[in-house]
Amino acid sequence: MTTKERLLSLLESQQGSFFSGEELAHKLQVSRAAVWKAVNALRQEGFAIDAVTNRGYCLSSDADILSVPGIRKHLAPENRENPITLLSTVPSTNASLRELAEQGAPAGSVVLALTQTRGRGRYGRSFFSPADTGLYLSVLLRPTHTSPRQTATLTAAAAVAMCQAMEAVCGETPQIKWVNDIYLHGKKVCGILTEAAFGLETGVPEYVVVGAGLNVYAPEGGFPPELLDIAGGLLPHRAADIKNRLAAEFVNRFLALAGASTEDFLEDYRRRSLVLGKRITVVSGGREQEALALGIDDSCRLVVRFDDGEAQAISWGEIRICPEKFQK
Prior knowledge:
alpha+beta, BirA Bifunctional Protein, domain 2, seven-stranded mixed sheet, 14 strands
């Protein structure tokens, strides 16, 4: 670790506490000039480090800036040594992690970014990823006995893990719109995207990358006009160390659920469903059909009954919830 990284780790371990320059130099075994240089470098990266005469340096207790040390301190012991890469700007965290996966990165590796220039959703859609207000991360899995159908359940596991993380850290109760969107107070706050690379001979995934984009706060100036009625933020105001805590909580919960049986999260997924019992429009293969959402089966497929009476379990496609006036 560099002096800057070790300094940040030390300040984050006791966020809100002051350390004198001499004390920091002694703990880091560097000169006071090196401490001063590292402090300035961190400030240039956006970290709010206060300096008070006769007291020293302190990472502001109100700071909410992502950092690798900040995430690690909230990780469960079994995940604390997992490789974590935090990048300033990337096209997408999924794409960056897939590159690392091709180079042999181990399961449990995590890539995060402060902003994405080409954040992606399902069917090639973009995900608005402004700097400083969101949490954009991807987690790598290397399943050994997973079929393509079972891989699809990992999206549901990630959605449940993110909902649980939001509840644990922020006290909110989000809902899931099948299959991968998380809503709060009627607005979409998070999307999940799962991508896999399959072996041609075995049909088993060589690796799976699961990405999540969470609007922690609304961006300064608000969402773009096309998203005003759709997107929302998890919290109305900034709070200390929220993004590090959310990232760690999601990683902890998702890795636990990904290694468990579907039964361990399926009931939670059903309980949080935004669509069950509602009339929906099913969009699949360029065709739109109205239906009633009846349930979610053990493979995380949405069970619907179309208006012609046919019941079907949908494993792909997308849905829209019909307006209230069309609900029966």
